Amino acid sequence: MEVHDSQPSLSRRWTDWLGYIAMRCVICLIQSISLKSSDRVCRLLAYALAHWLPVRREVVDTNLRIAFGELTDAQVALLRYKMWHHLLLMICEIAVAPRKIHRTNWYNHFYMPNKRQTLGVMLDARASVIVTGHFGNFEVAGHTVGILGLPPSAMARPLDNPYVDQYLAEFRSAGGQKILPKEGSSTAVQELLESRGTLAILADQYAGRKGCWVDFFGQPTSCHKALALFVLSAKAPMLVNSTRRLDRPLRFEMSTIGIADPELLNSPTPPDYLSSVQDLTSWYNARLEEMIRLAPEQYWWLHRRWRDVPPAVEKRLAAARLKQATPQAAPSPSSTA
To answer: Mind listing the UniProt keywords for this protein, alphabetically (predicted)?
Structure first.
């Protein structure tokens, strides 16, 4: 099995290997029982993680209160429990997806309310960019799109454990999906867009103080500028995609929340969100927020999405909010004559 070029210490290699063996044993157990039984186990483990074990509890609770304002302790605890249940169930779905979902039965697992619109963009002669977040089961979505004959190239950061990372890469590529490293892949992305391929990106990760700052749930956050640049420079339509679990495990709604098509810049009234990298970044974050509000328990509140904001950025965003909230004065009769 391939591992990364860096040479960790012997103890680290043993730790990584034992962690990988433990993960494979858990996956074998998941694959040997029914998904319904796995769901029951996930609920028990989620209760322990949410109420007994302080696993990133402070980060989760802080994020929930930033996003939704004044929640009671009981409301936060319930969302925390449901989030852990979703994450654990997501692992179970990934473990069984290659055995359960095939080209002949995918429609038993996925409901696509705007299938024509989504496939129309992906089958267009131009390149396309699929944007989503750590919401729902995006991993199973990528696998399923691949077995349908529309495999995207996804950008992903390698995991710290190289053996687990290799296993996840094999799952992602099983349906034809290609994985591009998040660092140093600008040339590969450019070649992909020039060859009219499909790029898939998780767009809800903190990009540092030099990123593109926009509001997310009403609070400033930093986003990578490259995503909007890819769309605007390649004239590639952007689809904001949601894969939300419905009433049972391995049953999802895969929908397109919004499409930003640079071709609209040639229309008589081009949309404002295509006018700049800042505006497009703000637009797709609003769409991500829209999907998360549909099922907040299916979002990864584990990430530190909001961090210290530079004073100049806070001042600029506050002015933009004020301008947006101020109603425009009605034109006088003389100005319309």
So the answer is: Acyltransferase, Cell inner membrane, Cell membrane, Membrane, Transferase
SS3 content of the chain, % helix, strand, coil (to 5): 55, 15, 30
pLDDT of residue 313: 87
CA distance 169 to 161: 12
Cα-only R_g, the chain:
22
What is the reported pLDDT for 336? Answer: 39
Question: What's the structural domain count of the chain?
Answer: 1
Dihedral sign from CA coordinates of 33, 37, 39, 43: negative
pLDDT at 183: 75
Cα–Cα distance for residue pair 228/218, rounded to 1 Å: 20
Q: Give residue 260's domain range.
A: 96-322
Answer whether residue 50 is part of any domain: no
Q: Is residue 274 part of a domain?
A: yes
Q: Which residues of the chain have pLDDT under 50?
A: 1-3, 331-337
Assigned domain for 150 exists: yes
Residues contacting residue 4 through CB under 8 Å, at least 6 positions apart:
158, 162, 165
- The DSSP bridge pattern shows strands 252-260 and 110-111 to be parallel
Between helix 73-100 and helix 138-147 the angle, nearest 10°, is: 20
pLDDT at 328: 57
Q: What pLDDT is attached to residue 280? A: 97
